[in-house]
Amino acid sequence: MAASLPLVAGTRLAAAQSSTSNPLLTKSNQLGWLDTAEPRARCGYTWGQPWPQGSLKSTELLHLVDQAGKHQPLQTWVMATWPDGSVKWTGHATAAGQALGQTFHVEKSEQKGRAPKAKHSVTIAESGKKLLIDTGVIRCVVNTQGEVIIDEITRAKKTLLQNARFIGQRQNQAEADGEQPLQVEHFSTQIQQADIEQRGPLRAVVKLSGMHRTANGREWLPFSLRLYFHAGGDAVRISHSFIFDGDEQQDFIRALGLRFDVPQRDETYNRHVRFVGEGSGLWAESPQGITGLRRDPGKVVREAQINGIATPALDTWDKRVSERLQFIPVWNDYSLSQLNANGFSIKKRTKAGHAWIDVDQGKRASGVAYVGGASGGVLFGMRDFWQLHPTQIDIRNAGTPIAQATMWIWSPDAPPMDLRFYHDGMGMDTYAKQIEGLEITYEDYEPGFGSPQGIARSTDFTIYALDATPSREQCIDLADSIRTPAQIIAAPQTYLDAGVFGGLWSLPDRSSPIKKILEDRLDWSINFYQQQIDQRHWYGFWNYGDVMHTYDSDRHVWRYDVGGFAWDNSELSPDLWLWYSFLRSGDARAFRIAEAMTRHNRDVDIYHLGRFAGLGTRHNVQHWGCSAKQLRISTAAYRRFHYFLTGDERTGDVLWEVAEADKQLVNLLPTRKVNPEAAADKNTHIGIGTDWGSAAANWLTAWERTGDARYKTWLENAMRTIGGNDLGFFAKGYHFDINSKAMTVIPPDPLESGRPKRVSHLNAVFGLIEICAELNQLIDVPEFKAAWLRYGRFYSAPAAQQAAEFGVSLTGNNLTNAHSRLTAYVAQQTGDTALAKRAWDEFFREANHVPEVKRVEGPLVLNPVDEAAWVSTNDSAQWGLAAIQNLALIGGSLAGSALKK
To answer: Where is the PcRGLX/YetA-like central beta-sandwich domain (predicted)?
Structure first.
């Protein structure tokens, strides 16, 4: 209630973790580091930067200026444009090794001529079916066809890596059942297409696409992967995505990973294996250890091996050791497996056919390893290793001339991947029974709709080709670049001044007691979800990045096993809340949660091929389980932030996939279970909020990325249709032509005359508010803006005002707190101070619980947890968006008298 928020929230929030924003980014046009400090491993970086409309032409040159005021090499490309053709977003890349400082900036060039050149350039040469990529430090041979992705990586003419390829195993059943034999077959990548997306000079990107092929010739699991190179760099980053297109009843992925060979030149005692554990933890040994022996080879010899450098000449050792080397075991094989989020183990053996020896255990491995010798080798790793469990790293034959390394996306030590639907239908074989099921578990069930066919997952790998075994400190620095990649960001003021994403936010402001309470509550919410992700173990290959929907206070758990109350799948826009939270604050916590959510939802919650391609899945126990397949989940409204802020090409791919996802409306009506009238409509039906708002976001994103007037025409025509309809946004929906995108008005039902008009409370809470703000900013359609302002003025208006406007009052118009930002928008646009006061009254009317958390311990729960039973992700997201936007739109109307309520 209104009184509960101010009275005690301040004391409850005292324990919340403070924002982790970069304190140095205080001025517009400043750039800096998401995690505040410049990384030690300068491996080359990519980011997106916004520009105010009209401020930058595509023909103008840009320079990067470091903290010392020195111009630095910069690669630039246009990511999006404004309606006038000026640049809206630029993408940028730096070379490896560039030191930029804590803050830096990009500016238009004042001088003619070329920007400063980097010491090295990255180049691509094509030779037959191969691409030769040279960063100036390493040379990589990439295949454009066949099984092997990378033929070799050389440094100073020394081959450090060979034969990189993806490999896997599938089996025909989840486990042996005694009736059918368990059959396991191997598969590997088959490259079918290669595209050079960037050629340098500072960054090159190669995209490979194809299928995985089994031993008997079956092609399945379509994949795409990108290889990234930076000038002067000794690393190759690989981003791999695959789509599951098998039969979940008989195609169980047993293992999937990236494998490559590492030539070994050094003596076995001068070779080294490293595994990075948690934080700065490091396990480091040689395949042939010379410490701890009964006889001592000498202190200098021992220290050299421990430090990973070449030992002194053998004839300088104590002969009691040097003459007995053949009796010291050579440990050829190593394995680190992370089968859950809280435990990994390392083991080793001398060779196949002999027992594994337990080495050690830990909690969360970084997924980074090294194999090689004093004269060079390969450090490699997987991003989000423990978060995406079950994972594994294998090193084989380290004591032979050719060692082999495998980074397993899905560990062969884990049970096979099981994507079958989690229940048998429970007798819901009729429409009526399915509606009854929806009533009790909130799950939309329909046979065959809970299919995983078409979902995807992406994994990022990094391979460093090194000319020596890295020091222990260097191992940790390189591991940091893999497990938590550094990200360049702009100062919050820069995003705000550019006017991107509708400008529906302001910078954090604690200048009054009530504003401080709201800001602290916003900060508390980010901290709470960060905490819940870890305490509730929201990790795993298919799960990491998502959060749960609703809490069960009786069991003290989130409702992970109850129908539509489990995984959230972007329900009511948590993505938007998190991204706007980052934009206004630069908070690294908000960014990391939002990025993980985008990387998950863009892959797992969206269908990328097949019957439901382009649609997303409503919230469920399994991410793909609910039978409601909808545009409101796959919409670009949630993913465009990540693309423009980071330049991530995989996210860009998915934005293209959904550009015309509205065509699916002719095949599958998203509200068929709850809107039988629309289901019976012979014309294709498009809902005004969750459908059209999602499609509009897709078209808008495609338009700004391409400048193609076709997308603008679709938007403008739709805006005129909505604005020209007496009901406007209060209409239940429109007829829709999937090809022309033409929308036509559905005549009102005479039987509804005189009855209270029902509206959907969900129309505006899946990005429609934010997208309409941008459309009104970009396209001048007065009748559309008028219809939007009318919707905002009357959605939550008193019944008498609604009746005066429509002849009847409205029903179904709940989520008042969330919709208060609609009222606030109208107040700000019209200067209506009375309406601004009403917006704040609406905001404080509901969902303003005291941010109180209690500790729950055993035997009530398995693990100690912090519980806020009143929290739901729906409310958290919508409360957060309302608070952020109301503060921006009508913050000046938030009088101190609100504290006295």
So the answer is: 122-479
